[in-house]
């Protein structure tokens, strides 16, 4: 019995020492982990070809190197999000329509010395073609003192899109009717010449026209050629007079009208100083979807604090509308012959909260701009219910109206056409909208080539304008 005791004690001592050592080992490991906060593990890149490895601590402490922000005041072509090739069409298609005469064999005016004037009046509503063309021409000027989302490139293989500089809205407004001894209006002749020119170009043959930008902002512009140019990206005011296989929100751009009413500069008005609750002045008797204007006129004409009357640009109509919108809390934008009208953009410029009654309307940049923050939308079927519209508007509180009014002042610059353009004005916003369509254009173009035959074993065959009709 005495012989076994030392062995027993020895075993107990060894077990005790082992237990203490184990305890110290785990305690030291715990404190080691706590001191590093679990951050010293190396995170390997999942890419087997990459030797990058960053500790979480280093990633947290090392400042991220940001790309330089594009200047708001100057054009840096390297920061442009869109490269645009522009056809050198004869002046007949663009500035020649403004009665500008080229010098020698030139095609474009020397905009460094001055720009041709655009006609006023209702022509201005659809003048986007003028502003975009000027912006592209000026993007090549050295030291341009304006931002540029898009820059002109002279090599079409480097371009994201191809711009067709035809002032189609101006052509429609001025030259639709034949002038003796003409038998066909100049507008129709120009469209025929344009289609013939386009389908002969290598740029068109490469893409079937899918990457071409055609401006047709006036609802009746390009009326004789739109069906032939359907693969193009149209820039429109709405889709009201287009079949969906020719123009749709998937491939085309909705751009704002240029407002007719002057901006409300230094607007210090408020809820109480705008004494008219709801304002509308314009054409009342319209066709197509515009019948709702007549119905609303009879419902609202005798309502207190509501101004609903006929008006036009004639007899100081713009001055009257300016005073009316500037003194109103809400401004009606009702569908007319087409789903859209310039009145919406007059309301925005006036900081008069738009009330939109147009079920089929499409709005500019709505993929990045939430109109519900500064507009009220009412279904046409609800608007024509007796008492519904006025009760809805009267129910909007002072606080909610003020938030929308403040938001209008924040976004109004997005609807301004200017030369030179400014950061995030209408010119830059439209180019940005085009840039967002480029991936879709490339997708459709690449898909159309999946089963294309090859002429010589290396180059894809050229498209005719009917090759990609299914889309």
UniProtKB/TrEMBL annotation:
UniProt main location, coarse: Golgi
DNA-binding keyword on record: no
Topology term for the membrane: Single-pass type II membrane protein
Top-level lineage group: Eukaryota
One Pfam family recorded for the sequence: Exostosin_GT47
GO cellular component, one term: Golgi membrane
Residues covered by the Exostosin GT47 domain: 81-390
Record's keyword terms, sorted: Glycosyltransferase, Golgi apparatus, Signal-anchor, Transferase, Transmembrane
Compositional bias (Polar residues): 63-74
Region (Disordered): 46-76
S-adenosyl-L-methionine in keyword set: no
Subcellular location as annotated: Golgi apparatus membrane
Example GO molecular function: glycosyltransferase activity
InterPro entries: Exostosin (IPR004263), Exostosin_GT47 (IPR040911)
Listed PANTHER family: EXOSTOSIN FAMILY PROTEIN (PTHR11062:SF99), EXOSTOSIN HEPARAN SULFATE GLYCOSYLTRANSFERASE -RELATED (PTHR11062)
Family: Belongs to the glycosyltransferase 47 family.
Protein name: Arabinosyltransferase ARAD1
Organism, scientific name: Iris pallida
